[in-house]
Amino acid sequence: MTERVVAEAGLRESQDRFRALVQHSRDLIVVLDDQGRIEYLRSGAERLLELDPEEMRGVEGLTLVHPEDAELAATLLLEMIGTNALDLIHPDDRDQVFEAITTDLTGEPSVAGS
Fold first, then answer.
1. In angstroms, rounded to a whole number, what is the distance separating the alpha carbons of residues 114 and 110?
2. What's the pLDDT score for residue 58?
3. For residues 40 and 26, which has the higher predicted lDDT (pLDDT)?
4. CB–CB of 47/24 below 8 Å?
5. Residues 55, 58, 45, 69: is their CA dihedral positive or negative?
6. What is the pTM of this model?
7. In this predicted structure, what is the pLDDT of residue 84?
8. Which phi and psi (to 5°) does residue 58 adopt?
């Protein structure tokens, strides 16, 4: 095997491991683009919020947040750091409180290049 083939196999293994960890996490994981639209919503969102992740792609992320927490959520997105509790809403208007941990990964080359 050439070095390139070995490196590509290692990369695939790493990507598969990461994908499995994220997909099986009990956390609600949302990735937003620089405009605040949903790029990725972990499939567990179907169980937690009764949302189809594919249908949510491109939707403004703040639409998931209860109106009373929208200002806090917008501030967190601007600051992109911290831990707070946010009240998210289900499509049937039920509320559910989640701890929100925001992290700015836009400076990470592996994230920015995706």
1. 7
2. 93
3. 40
4. no
5. negative
6. 0.60
7. 66
8. 90, -10
